């Protein structure tokens, strides 16, 4: 149980994610203007602001309870595709993390994988579809690989955040096949995906808060 | 950005206050942002609910009333409503005969309505059936895309399915009528200008003075191609031809012809476009059985229009002609 992550660490991750969304909301909306409907930054900021209010208002006894609240808050405040996708990610993350007040590195990686599987189930996205999956999947792979190789959680999360950013950058030349960007066909090529961008911010926040 | 607003974040909730004040025949649940017909639930009648991002007015709130929708869920600007809104609306409008969810084919709308239907099944005994509208021929449908968008056909579907529900048809029958309308409807849109989402503060896309976008949806998202601005008769060809070849419509078929304004185009231009559309249909031997011209499914102040054609049958035409009494569509009452 070295590298155990406590509830306050997990809360710091979410607060850090909210701060990064706030700092990048205009950039996210700008990216969404190019291939979507110009609301990703606004929507994520509305959701994370609601999450901060929920964190300030209550104490949560376990990771499961904490992430259930976060997931439900996102589903009920974001709307669009991002609400169900991020909401499902955190709901599944919480179920996998379980009824504990601290989780070790392997459990954290398993929870991230469960969250990713939730995104796949809800959005039916695959690698290369130009979605948040293209940032999250390489992050989960990197986390598993580093931990299996015996790396500490801090190092492994840095590698995961780096992999998410690399995955985010790789969405630029892709042809969108899911979501509103898919309606543009060839014209979606050449634009970085806003969902992959916010997902990379989530992994960067994890590396900063939990590493 | 020049708009008649207070704060960008308050646009939807303040507009709902105005809708409630202007229409005593409607009732608004402000915390949940749901617009109801004031007498909902109607006992024994299949209830229809729809919803989507705001910014498309009168869709959907303007179509709440006898003969059409029982409730409309208003999402944030261009953002689908959340499952809680739809679940609340579903419980409130059920008159014992079940509820039809009318969903436009956008990823967010589909996912949120799916979650709402799952919750309704888990938490209530209300019978829910969903129909997804996907009438936009601008999108090349394939296994590898999210499918075609739901656009102008949504208006025709809400009217016709609403009439079927008013006649006392069962949930299965109303859903079948809705699916038939969707299968028989095709749309194509174009834009002369972008809209500006209040929270974004600047136009969603840049477009030159001499350019237009062909194949746009209803969210200011760019279309499939950008071409030089052309006279209305050529624009009409660009919109109608892909529709006619898609279904396909045959010589002698009757249609409802719907020329829709995107929000920033005046009626004089829409009527001029209707004339061009009618001439093309006449040339192809397609008979216009009924028509609808005006801004009914809009994209804020975007200039442009869309054309929707729906192949009619006697049953569908009778349902179209049935009385409707809503803020935006009213006849026969």
Description of the structure:
The complex is a heterodimer of chains A (211) and B (333). Chain A has eight helices and two strands; from the N terminus they run βααααβαααα. Chain A has one domain: Serine Threonine Protein Phosphatase 5, Tetratricopeptide repeat, CATH 1.25.40. Chain A has a two-stranded antiparallel sheet with strand order 1-2. Chain A has helices at residues 7-35, 40-57, 63-78, 82-97, 105-123, 133-148, 153-170, 194-210, and strands spanning 5-6, 102-103. Chain B is an alpha/beta fold. Chain B folds into two domains: 10-184, 3-Layer(aba) Sandwich (Rossmann fold), CATH 3.40.50; 185-331, Dihydroxyacetone kinase, domain 2 (Hypothetical Protein Tm841, Chain: A,domain 3, 2-Layer Sandwich), CATH 3.30.1180.20. Helices cover 32% and strands 23% of the residues of chain B. Chain B has a six-stranded mixed sheet with strand order 1-2-4-3-5-6, sandwiched between helices. In chain B, strands 9-8-7-12-10-11 form a six-stranded mixed sheet. In chain B, helix 4 runs antiparallel to helix 5 and helix 4 packs across helix 8 (314-321). Chain B is globular. Classes of the chains: A mainly alpha (211), B alpha/beta (333). The interface between A and B is medium-sized, with 32 and 36 residues.
